[in-house]
Amino acid sequence: MIIDTTEVQAINSFFRLESLKEVYEIIWMLVPIFTPVLGITIGVLVIVWLEREISAGIQQRIGPEYAGPLGILQALADGTKLLFKENLLPSRGDTRLFSIGPSIAVTSILLSSLVIPFGYRLVLADLSIGVFLWIAISSIAPVGLLMSGYGSNNKYSFLGGLRAAAQSISYEIPLTLCVLSISLLSNSSSTVDIVEAQSKYGFWGWNLWRQPIGFIVFLISSLAECERLPFDLPEAEEELVAGYQTEYSGIKFGLFYVASYLNLLVSSLFVTVLYLGGWNLSLPYIAVPYFFEINKADRVFGTIIGIFITLAKTYLFLFIAITTRWTLPRLRMDQLLNLGWKFLLPISLGNLLLTTSSQLLSL
């Protein structure tokens, strides 16, 4: 049987188009995954630069100014330096736990960003248990810190890992109870539904006004979860010589550095979603989309506005967290545990009871 040359060319072109189509589908599938990762990485660099500038302003000194305009490339220069530094391993430590610990700390926090909405349809995974998935995944990070401290074969590092685990357990419970109160108010655990429930009444519908006690408890618990001053006991320099990261160098030390700021960024985003109305910046009873006359045809512009509003609220909370670090002294370990178990836990339980009672009376 003789096959015409034009038929062979047509078959080849067909298969070529099919292969190009498959490659295009794979690339398009990876875009929603890598875009948030890139955005979060840039956000971490911005936080590092902001912390250095704000701390310099509070202490009346000059911050970074030589690496790029206004020193904005200083964090990138530090990351590049850590990337090329020698990666040392403790001779008598557990090298597997020592290597896996930083990866677990970073990966668990990155997975939390799956359920963060930046717009009505701008979310990687709109799950019905979104906020509780964040709590469950973020609870894995202290396990990585404990593995790092134990694998270092250093008593100071091990104590730092134990402090991180104890601190996380102490403040995870009040934080979870506050999230449960928000879920009861919104009749949903989906992050998108929680933001939509706050948009019904405009500015006064934010959970900040409906749950002021829960907001304060959530704020304190978030700072403790992120190990920020005055709650940075797992890496206290005076008694632990930097704690669980004492034996680390190079890129593995850089991963701990990234995980700390990444956790702060994700926690700030959840504060925005749970208490500050998410992507909806509403003046009293005037929503921003109507203010800018955004309709369905202007969906792209509305999405950009939503992202900008979410980031503006997030960095407002970040400013508070950074200012707190350079204002308050560090707590002692007994003070930290007493604050978590004797004050925040009863207050968050009382707040949950009040929220449940109000919801039952409104039925």
Total tally of structural domains: 1
End-to-end C-alpha gap: 79 Å
By helix and strand content, what is the structural category?
A: mainly alpha
Following the backbone from N to C, one meets helices and strands in this order, namely HHHHHHHHHHHEEHHH
| Number of E strands | 2
Helix segment tally = 14
Task: Tell me, rounded to a whole number, the average pLDDT.
Answer: 82
Rg (C-alpha, Å): 24 Å
Shape: globular
Percent of residues in helices comes to 55-70%
The biggest beta sheet is recorded as: 2 strands, antiparallel
> Largest sheet, order of strands side by side?
1-2
Q: Point out poorly predicted stretches.
A: 285-297
Strand content: under 5%
Note the main attributes of this structure:
about 375 residues; mainly alpha; two-stranded antiparallel ribbon; 14 helices; 2 strands; about 0% strand; NAD(P)H-quinone oxidoreductase subunit 1, chloroplastic; chloroplast
Q: Secondary-structure blueprint of this entry?
A:
Layout: H1 5-58, H2 74-84, H3 95-112, H4 130-138, H5 141-151, H6 155-186, H7 191-198, H8 207-210, H9 212-225, H10 237-240, H11 250-275, E1 282-283, E2 286-287, H12 288-291, H13 299-325, H14 333-362
Antiparallel strand pairs: 1-2
Account of the protein in words:
This protein is mainly α and 363 residues long. It has one domain. It has 14 helices and 2 strands; from the N terminus they run αααααααααααββααα. Strands 1-2 form a two-stranded antiparallel ribbon. Strand 1 and strand 2 form a beta hairpin. Helix 6 (155-186) crosses helix 7 (191-198) and helix 6 (155-186) runs antiparallel to helix 9 (212-225). The longest helix is centred in the N-terminal third of the chain and has 54 residues, at 5-58. The chain starts with a helix and ends with a helix. The model is unreliable at 285-297 (pLDDT under 50).
